[in-house]
Design brief:
The complex is a heterodimer of chains A (about 120) and B (about 325). With about 120 residues, chain A is α+β, with helices and mostly antiparallel strands. Chain A contains four helices and three strands, in the order H-E-H-H-E-E-H. The chains are: A alpha+beta (about 120), B alpha+beta (about 325).
Amino acid sequence: MPPKTDQAELLQGTLDMLILKSLAEGPRHGYGVARWIHTISRDALRIEEGSLYPALHRMARRGWIAASWGQSEANRRAKFYRLTRSGRRQLGAKVGSWQQLVAAIALVLEANPVEAVR
Amino acid sequence: MIRRFFNAVFDYLRTPPGEVPRHVSRAINDEIESHLALSVRDRSAQGISRDDARRRAVDEFGDMASAVRGCQSVWYADQNICHWVHLGLTAVLLVAAAYWFVAGRSKANPQTAAATGDLHGWVADEHSQPIGQAHILAVVKTWPSNGYRQQAYMTSSGPDGTFRIDNVYATDQQYEVQLAVVANGRLLESKYVSDGSGQLAPFTFTLRPSAPIVLRFQAAGGGPMAGVEVFPHRRVGANGRDDSQVYFCSADPIVQRSNDEGLARLPYFRDGDQATFCYRAPGREWETRDVVIPPDSRQIVLELEPADAATRPDSQQRGA
């Protein structure tokens, strides 16, 4: 597990993509989304929970995710989110864009400085 | 989507401006409290005391007020759309109401909206000398929006005998005009224009001398009746062809009252004319009386019965 001081800083615009991905396997409530991202990233990524819920509400308004009330593990009323068809398309598009970005950055990082001059 | 749309409209309609509905606030709070409860549960499972777990959960959550505002701003986004739609519909409604009001007034008063036709002409005697101070009484009939409208106008001829009444009919619409001229010591004359179109040509009235006719109103017992209102309504010449009228609705400027001797001067007829007078005794309705002007007669006595029925002249007759 990378030290907390080395935790990767989330790039702007990736929060939506991570949230959509967290819901790809099934409905979760907000706490579950945050925990899943934290766990899957091996503690490298920690979402500021204060930003999570506005993002969830924003994506619900756009129709990428749908919300319904249920019962949490703590036996309390909780709102569960699930991915919609539109959300799946958005996830695919965002993952594709991300991969293109990562590939481009990798090319830059691996390049011989001389080759960059044309 | 449709359900969400109606929920948004319903929230907009029932929520005062600047406020968040209770159900929205409650839902946001419940969601955050649920998150904190789960966080506390997980920490408690690690052996942390409940109070400590709660404190850490709150710290980890971050700025809770900001999170609530962030969630509310998403709700406001829907309300803003409703607000702009509301403003747009209100603006459309105001424009439609203004158009309806203006259009309605134009239709109700087509003469002021589109009228450009004038009445003008010249009054002279049999020697083509101008007659000033002649009463010009006009009645214009129009048919706006398949209805009927009758409007009276009045003016006087100038020292040069000319007269003008501007803007009384629409030149591109159907109209009819009745014009009567009443001058002291001159025969009553009138003209009627039916199926009028475009701008009317100038009228020319040649007024011939009349006899100094005086009416004397008296009661059944022979006593004079003062204060009787009277005006000349119709003159048919002895030849039967001259037929001039004053419409009731335009007669106001020429109504006279009998004096204490019951006398009223109406010098608008001559010997042999069939004259129709409109008169109204005090406290009674308007009535008409037909009289043939006898030769060399200068005073015509009209005896008023005590219980004469009211007979209002037909003010919508067309001129011959």
